[in-house]
Amino acid sequence: MADLVHTGGDSDAxxxxxEEPLILSDLINRVLDKGVVIGGEVTIAVAGVDLVRxxxxxxxxxxxxxxxxxxxxxx
Amino acid sequence: xxxxxxxxxxxxxxxxxSIAGLDGRPVRVLPLGDRHAWVxxxxxxxxxxxxxxxxxxxxxxxxxxxxGYSVVPSLxxxxxADDRSLLAALERSAEAVDTAMELVRGRVEMSFLxxxxxxxxxxxxxxxxxxxxxxxxxxxxxxxxxxAERILLASAAELAQSASRSLxxxxxxxxVVENPMSPIxxxxxxxxxRDNVAxxxxxxxxxxxxxxxxxxxxxxxxxxxxxxxxQVG
Lengths: 75, 233
What we know:
B: alpha+beta; 6 helices
């Protein structure tokens, strides 16, 4: 399935190959930043070019703590 | 064989799935009362985070979102020994999943991103100065580059703050992503009702750029990793 990146152009939804690093960076920010623990160092690379070396010793923020800290469930 | 969990879903009854998950393996449905867990088998007990797998994990959850499910996403990276141990872990996490489901029911996550509008500026080439003069020149170029990056980040932060105000009535929760990964300069995660997605996109795209060196990109709708992700197990 294609991943959409919406930008400020004429089209409502553009699918752009050159947005690949952007999509991956966004995903890493969100999918990995507050939860996954995959010991060790992983090199994130796109098209053979290392984007960043991530030390994936990141700690889960449990959803209960997240909810208590910033968000209340809808009534 | 280990089992990978994509998320817990609530919504339309599951029919036969034909979705490819991690490493192309088929996504399976585990019934959880009136909910479902989407899983796939993994070849080994250790799961390495690769760009391809992260994209595959996300693609499965976006497929669920597109189908109309409310999705409590599982964060990437933990495997379970088998279906039975996963179901037991889900049972232990039932309260957290319930709370998360309350948050995401009928809602999706949108990523508001500010990125450079062009390639990063190329550092000036060294001049012909030698010795101490060359060292000073090098430091001057570094200071100039750092200053340019700070200006770019400040512009991005300003645009993100402005967008946050404009979009405020369209999201129910916001999370500012700290130190987003390059090339992203500033990133906001917004929890948005499905009914507001089209309006959110229109409003996001209508943001005025005070600095042409930055531009806006919006990803979504997607799973609400930033607000309601769980790590089961």
